[in-house]
Amino acid sequence: MSMSINTNNAAMAALKSLNQTSDDLSTTQNAISTGKKVNNASDDPAVYAISQGMNAQISGLSGVSTGLQFAGQVLNTTNQATISITSNLSTLSSTITQAANNGMDQTKLNSAIKSTLSSIDSAANTATFQGVNLLSGSTGNGVNYNTISAAQDINGNLFTQSGFNATSAGLGLQGLSTSMSGTVINNPGTLSGSGTSASVLQVQNQAQTNNTGAAGNPAITTSFILDNKPGDSSGASSTVSSMINDALTSGSGFTVSISNGKLSVNDSHSKSAIASTTTNSDGTTSYKLTNGDNIQTQADASGNMTYTISKGGDVDSNGNVRAMSKIVDIDISKASSAGSATQQNNAAEATLVTAINNAGFGAQTNNDGSITMAGGNLDTTNNNVKMGTYSAGQGGNPGSVTSNTTTSQTSGTTVVQLAVGAALSSIERISSKIGVATNSVTQLQSSTSSLSDSLTSGVGALTDADMAAESAKLTSLQTKQQLAVQSLSIANSQSSQIMSLFRG
User: Fold this and answer.
1) How far apart are CA 369 and CA 99, in angstroms?
2) Quick one: pLDDT at residue 381?
């Protein structure tokens, strides 16, 4: 073995081993102190990149969870208010029935009605959580939003629940008293759903008649169209498309068509006049047109499509709609197989009455075949309930219903009960939708939490250190370090051994 003072191979080997051991010991100590085996890209570039992406997803899901929690609180607040309103209406219905049977003083009954309506308004208007109210029907007075939206995933998809109007006016109880008037459609006649001769029932609320539409109590014209071919702009549905078009801002030059239930609106150049489309979680679809008008579509409890049209000029500075037209496309195709012509007509009338009730009015078929309507803030004066056929507008003028039947006013306990019953049905439908929305949010929260937990576990599996293994490794490396130091010390002592060769 050669000995050199310039090159000490043993010392270099020992130093290299010591440096490597020190590096490994530093890595192990870092893993023990942080609990992670991959702390930065230099530890493992591929695993670090994957873990960072997963951590970003976890952070995004945290934001999603927070938004869903907020939506859940809004819905819980709304649900409590609907319970209160339902209870008030149920009590009022019972009171009215008892009054009719026991001859309660009308003044006392009207006082009870007034008190109940006040309680309903209070419950609806105070169901506000952080500026969001789904029952007030309008913004303002501390209410900033009438809808609730929350991210349901990290891809930007939204859960959206539209608001309702559960105030006394929104439930159609404006002017409710023992003297409230209803309307009797004396002879609906032969109901048809073919071509442009489709039968149409058109009604107005009091705000429409009096031109007093405002936030929370807009002016509304509602048209019920009996249709053998719903969802198609050919045949009877041409009445539907004509009425939608006539309800838009005059002079827009738009053409409305319906194909397989899908709405299309084209401008005078045959280009789409729909600027944007939004579909909410409850199935409501809103179309914003290029001229600022809006069309909202939603199926009622029987599956009949309802088109709600509001003009851009009828929206106030807070975004509240002050006037609108509602067009209900009623499917009477099944009535054609009901048997004789009389049976078919009776089936069509029954379908019409159901649709009227679904729209928030109270309606019933009487023994003589007439229909009694009440509630929905219905205006019963000046022939504002019309049953006939619709003639499309010409030269920018709106179309009109030519009535071919007579109507008359009626009053009494039946009318009041119809109005209250309609309000009860409306709040029950609202409660049902809020319940569905609450369940949806709960399920989304659960799936978000489960996904976040899975991702967290995945990141842990990729980056977390095995503390038992790291502890054993630490002991081994500390021993190796001590041995490396000892080995380096021995190697460095070789130079002193060389000196012994030159001693005399």
Assistant:
1) 28
2) 83
